[in-house]
Amino acid sequence: MSFLRPKNTAPGAAPAPFRGDDTVTNGMRIAGAWGWRILVVAACLALVGWLISTLSEIVVPFLIALLISALLKPAVTALIRHRWPRWLAIVVTLLAAIVVVGGLVLLVVEQIRSGLPTLEKESTTRFDQIKSLLAGPPFNLTTSDYNGYLSSITKAVQDSSKSILSGALSIGTTAGHLLTASLLVFFATIFMLIDGENVWKWVTRLFPRRAREAVDGAGQAGWHTLTTFVRVQIFVAAVNGVGIALIAFFLGLPLSIPIGVIVFLASFIPVVGAIVSGAFAVIIALVFVGPLQAVIMLGGVLGVHLLEAHVLQPLVMGNAVRVHPLAVVFAVAGGSFVAGVPGALFAVPTVAVLNVMITYVGQGKWRGRNDRAAAEETAEQVVPETD
């Protein structure tokens, strides 16, 4: 019955005491060790997400200011290299950005004002056409039917006056929040342009001395990726906006310039933004021009989207931030599911920056500098003896 004797037990010797760990394989121990660590990391991420959602009115303006600073910092640095004073370089860059944004807003408002009479006329004509269509079979609607529907709508508005009032109050509160957020963005951008390096040095000092070199190098690599992402995304958004605006102009759509500006702003949400904002142009073409122009407009929107998805994103954006287009799509979808529009806006830069930072730490290029920091720390702890 030697086959019943435990392994490594001599004949006639007492068997080794049973240990519960003997029933757990080495692979299961490794899986368990990884499992509880993954659970701890997931709990930390959930805590960070909860803090961000709770403090969203502070976090979102800070992230917007971070993107704006990443866009403006190269211009400030270039002016400083040309022997401009730092304060003057920052003021000129901020004023230039305000002039560009203000010019776009003024252009959109002027286009809407100039095109409003045409829109009213076209809307009336289109409404009469739809009314004539509904008057025939199979709808056979009469003027009394329209009046009845109008009375029902008026009564519904009167009955929901309390809801409308509360909505107005909500809009007032939202306007106050927008004003506060705008001020936070403005001041945070100024301070990051003025003293961003010292702020980052203060952040790195929060980490242990042995980890500071890794954190500092990863942060610098992430900042470089963020500045590259912002510049490339502006280029991609400009291509989308100009392309769809030109198609709308040649089709005779009203408000072609505002459509282009809307597409430009929405394209800061990669892949998804151009499609959603392009659908707005298709609806305008269908309502104010005709079904044939709407189909052509839809083809133009899809063409611009294919240009972005198959040329700009893989070649320009992919080479700049090293994120696969599939990861871009899922990042936007996940960010919008978790945090709505802000989540979709910040999802791709967050993934790109984290990818670069984790890769930098994993490659270990900081280890030589970290060893020097450890040696300095050891030297500081040695106290020479005195007689």
* H-E order: HHHHHHHHHHH
Apparent shape:
globular
State the end-to-end CA separation: 76 Å
Rg value: 31 Å
Largest sheet: none
Fraction of residues in helices? over 70%
**What class do helices, strands and sheet pairing give?**
mainly alpha
Characterize the quaternary organization of these chains: single chain
β-sheet strand percentage: under 5%
Q: Give average pLDDT, whole number.
A: 76
Strand segment count = 0
**What is the helix tally?**
11
Low-confidence stretches: 1-5, 163-172, 374-387
Textual characterization of the structure:
This protein has 387 residues and is an all-alpha fold. It is globular and about 80 Å long. Helix content is 83%, strand content 0%. The longest helix is centred in the first third of the chain and has 50 residues, at 86-135.
Write the layout of secondary structure elements.
Layout (H helix, E strand, L loop, with lengths): L25 H29 L1 H26 L4 H50 L7 H17 L1 H44 L4 H42 L5 H11 L5 H17 L2 H31 L3 H39 L3 H15 L6
Helix pairs in contact: 2-3, 2-5, 2-6, 6-7, 6-8, 6-9, 6-10, 6-11, 7-8, 8-9, 9-10
In short:
The protein is an all-alpha fold and 387 residues long.
Keywords:
mainly alpha; single chain; disordered N terminus; 387 residues; globular
